[in-house]
């Protein structure tokens, strides 16, 4: 994915400890974590716990919650699944787009969509219509704030570029900060209110999201040779509109999840979460339906007690998972391990960061085997501590010497 679309997550506080000599026991970071009051660590070897520190204590998982969302999505749809977006022709000549909740439509997708529309013989449309009614009105994700941070972008059933736009404000005016994304009227309006420099701007509500989608699609259609009228309408698909084309996402679910995990994309994670609540009866997707469906899946799959899932990205401090529950997830996620970002050739894991929360969960290579671990710290620590702990897990020959009896 282009750098301009990357969603960065977390705060770099920085902390460096001296490296241990090869083969030596390195108790430093591990001893520090094992001494923390609000920290849990579980490490397994061959299915047996070798370190279990408060492993059953429910804690705020932050973005390690995305591991559970990813597994649920894979088991629901499979890695080859592609989200679809339907286009319709109305009697007044308008081209309508009905959003289905594809969380990863980006500018390049609209390029392909426009070319497909042109290839189907459509040379002129009176305007663009947008239907975002797949999501229930008033959708509010727990933990999301109204900041301009990309991880706080609002969800909508029809969205492009994660409901954000990227602009460059100069003395001479406003430009798009992405080669693949032309400047639209809305982007120019919002950009004029900003100080000089590059800015990633959230589209604050569904109305702005629909308008931006329509403007950007119109620009892409014109670039493909389609004449497009200026009139944009947003609302439910009009009666009598005829199905015209179905666009399949340019990336499969496996690719989507790998990107979501690498860049900790909350928009994608909660888009998947909402889609998991689809009852198949055409009713608008709601947070409550997603929570119920997710809990039913987790209860059936794991039989857990004492957990809570409020949303799928890890934004909410109301989410609760234990280190043991995360390791349960990692056992099932093992066939998809390569979807996780790599710290190095020995560690593949997902971070989780909120203020005062520092988590890390994934796999560490020990004795030629990939073993699961979960670290949940619910108190302020140095940002790099979790990575140093994972490094220690990979380099310490005998973890029993660090945590005799496994239970610390």
Provide a brief overview of the structure:
The chain is of the alpha+beta class and 408 residues long. The protein contains 10 helices and 14 strands.
Record field, number of beta strands: 14
What structural class should be given to the helix and strand makeup? alpha+beta
Beta-strand content: 15-25%
Rg, rounded, reads 23 Å
Which stretches are low in confidence, meaning pLDDT under 50 for 5 or more residues running?
Answer: 1-27
Number of helices: 10
Q: Average pLDDT across residues?
A: 91
Largest β-sheet summary: 6 strands, antiparallel
Shape: elongated
Element-level helix/strand string: HEEHEEHEEEHEHEEHHHHEEEEH
Summarize the amount of helix as a percent range.
25-40%
Strand line-up of the largest beta sheet: 2-1-14-13-12-11
First-to-last CA distance: 42 Å
Oligomer: single chain
Describe the structure.
The protein is an alpha+beta fold and 408 residues long. The protein has 10 helices and 14 strands. The protein is 29% helix and 23% strand. A hairpin with a 2-residue loop joins strand 12 (347-354) and strand 13. The two termini are 42 Å apart.
Structure keywords:
14 strands, 10 helices, 6-stranded antiparallel β-sheet, elongated, 5-stranded mixed β-sheet, 408 residues, alpha+beta
Note the topology.
Blueprint: H1 27-34, E1 39-45, E2 48-53, H2 65-77, E3 84-89, E4 95-98, H3 107-119, E5 124-131, E6 164-170, E7 173-176, H4 185-191, E8 197-202, H5 206-223, E9 227-234, E10 242-248, H6 253-263, H7 266-275, H8 287-302, H9 323-333, E11 342-344, E12 347-354, E13 357-366, E14 369-377, H10 385-395
Parallel strand pairs: 4-5, 5-9
Antiparallel strand pairs: 1-2, 1-14, 3-4, 3-10, 6-7, 6-8, 11-12, 12-13, 13-14
Helix pairs in contact: 1-10, 2-6, 2-7, 2-9, 3-5
